[in-house]
Amino acid sequence: MQASPDPLPSKALGVKEEISPERGRADVDPFVPRTWEPPPPPVVVAPVVPLPPQAPPLPFRFFGRIVDSGEPASFILMRGSETIAVRVGDRIEPAYLVDKFDGTHLHLVYLPLNIRQTMFIGNSNE
Questions:
Q1: Which DSSP string do the residues of 19-71 spell out, in sequence order?
Q2: Domain assignment of residue 69, given as a range
Q3: Alpha-carbon distance 44 to 78, whole Å?
Q4: Is 89 left (phi over 0), alpha (psi -120 to 50) or beta?
Q5: Per residue in 25-50, pLDDT tens?
Q6: Mind spelling out the 3-state secondary structure of 98-122?
Q7: Is 47 within a domain?
Q8: Full-model pTM
Q9: CATH number of the domain that 108 lies in?
Q10: In a domain, 82, yes or no
């Protein structure tokens, strides 16, 4: 019996001896699109900086002013259907202080945060 001729060495045929680690793996999808483009740069998310606490909008509307000779001016404010008469230095409930009047604006302080708020009330000559 004649021996069969030796097959050609695989190197002579240009076949690689080692097998790719991806070949034969069930978790590699051969149909996934591939690209030569480099991967996009990672997205850098800036940390969210919380806003400083703010006073709520003034719950009052200016309704009128009372000026008596020799007395400090009184200001009539409305909160919903409630009428409130105040003077500079008065506290409105625990949250607001009437700080000053400059002729056109009534300045209030929101006491829980010590934030100043301004209400336009018009010209004092009107």
A1: PPTTTT-TT--TTS---SSPPPPPPPPPPPPPPPP-PPPP--EEEEEE--TTS
A2: 61-120
A3: 49
A4: left
A5: 556 777 877 788 888 899 999 999 99
A6: EEEECCCEEEEEECCCCEEEEEECC
A7: no
A8: 0.60
A9: 2.30.30.830
A10: yes
